[in-house]
Design brief:
By secondary structure, the chain is of the alpha+beta class. It folds into 2 domains: about 1-105, Homeodomain-like (Arc Repressor Mutant, subunit A, Orthogonal Bundle), CATH 1.10.10; about 130-275, Multidrug-efflux Transporter 1 Regulator Bmrr, Chain A (Alpha-Beta Barrel). It is about 40% helix and about 25% strand. The protein is built from 9 helices and 9 strands. Strands 1, 2, 3, 4, 5, 6, 7, 8 and 9 form a 9-stranded antiparallel beta sheet that branches. Helix 3 crosses helix 9 (about 225-240) and helix 5 (about 75-80) crosses helix 6. It is elongated, with a radius of gyration of 22 Å.
Length: about 280
Amino acid sequence: MNNWINGIQEAIEYIETNLTQDIKVKDVADKAYVSEFHFQRIFSALCGISIAEYIRNRRMTLAAKELAAKDTKVLDVALKYGYDSPDSFTRAFTKFHGITPSQAKETGASLKDYAPVRIKLSLEGGTMMEYKIVEKAAFTVMGRKRSFDTETSYQEIPKFWEEHFKDGGGEIVCGMYGLCIDSDGRYFDYLIADNYMPWKEIPEGCETITLPAGLWAVFPCKQRTLQDTNTRMWREWLPNCKEYKLSGNYNIELYGPPCQEDIGESYVELWLPIEKL
């Protein structure tokens, strides 16, 4: 499965050689042989940063070097790295470096450098990751849906859950599932959902989605270890998996009953759709 890691690195190298071009996530994901939906989650887990933020950071790094080393106009650098106006470029540059592009041209200006990512797979002894492969028939869930940007989803989805329960939504949809479904690569739909009961009327503001039959890799964890398990799923399990590959542009969080003594001890499962190689 080292080819999987190689694919991710090829995607990063594609970004590096096209930083002055219009980079589409689909083209980057194609280099890694995965969908946009999965690639953005893989990249964030491996690198700790979204792909869009990575591209911005790399462009700001190169732009600063050009401004510091050459007698280059700010407008020319702004246009080269995809900004339509000096103002938008100045705002982005100042946010990243803490100084304006004009100040970056001064001798001795302090600038930040965001180095290109290099993916390495290291094998460490003494650790285990619990998982199981489950074959599941098609099933339908019912819940409340909202669209999210991958750039801000980690911050916004918890707010969606908080709003759901604050508004009394927990009496209608308990929240057995958190379901992510690809929309257009960058944006995805997220449902707070339960199993659909066909004999019950679908509440106002809710909808149903049917997931196809197939194989799932299931990773049990606790609420407090959810993010760590998610990261290890991408960093450790998938690169070393020789029998399965990713399938379907969706994934599931399954939540057990909340632990009354300590919510962090509540049982959770991460479900990743897969298929045999």
